[in-house]
Design brief:
7-stranded mixed β-sheet; 46% strand; 146 residues; mainly beta
């Protein structure tokens, strides 16, 4: 599934059956490449993050979380935690470890059941998730081709 198809999807609290936010972005972790968190737009100005491990189910209309208390305020997440906003790859330059620019990350193809990243998608190509080395505040870094 492409992440752009998930953006805007509701996140539902299973204890109340109420919507607690909508997906606005994601964060990723390398080795193995996976979705680490879903960034949510909620009421008011607060930004919240739902860790991938707290996703109960991933349906075509909504994403379910066991309880709203599993959703964290982004202000409480440390930059070293892969759920932090700095690890959002979409819109960042994609560079090889040797500095070669491979474009800009436009989308992420992932398995909605496991969160495993299949590909990082640029305008020009798809980079396998297995090549992801890290995501920083400026760029996404992948292994250099041999």
């Amino acid at each position: 599934m492409l992440f752009t198809k998930v953006r805007g999807r509701d996140v539902m609290d299973l204890t109340t059956a109420g919507t607690v936010g909508t997906v606005s972005a994601c964060t990723v972790a390398p080795a193995p490449a996976r979705i680490a968190g879903l960034r949510l737009k909620t009421r008011g100005r607060r930004r919240r993050t739902l860790g991938w491990d707290d996703v109960q189910s991933f349906g075509p209309d909504a994403i379910a979380v066991a309880a709203a208390d599993r959703i964290r305020d982004e202000k409480t997440i440390e930059p070293g935690d892969h759920a932090h906003a700095v690890h959002d790859p979409v819109g960042k330059p994609l560079l090889t470890e040797t500095g070669l620019v491979k474009g800009t990350v436009r989308d992420i193809e992932f398995d909605e059941q496991t969160g495993s990243i299949s590909y990082l998608v640029t305008d020009e190509e798809q980079i396998p998730g297995t090549e992801l080395l890290g995501v920083g505040s400026y760029a996404v870094v992948v292994t250099a081709p041999p």
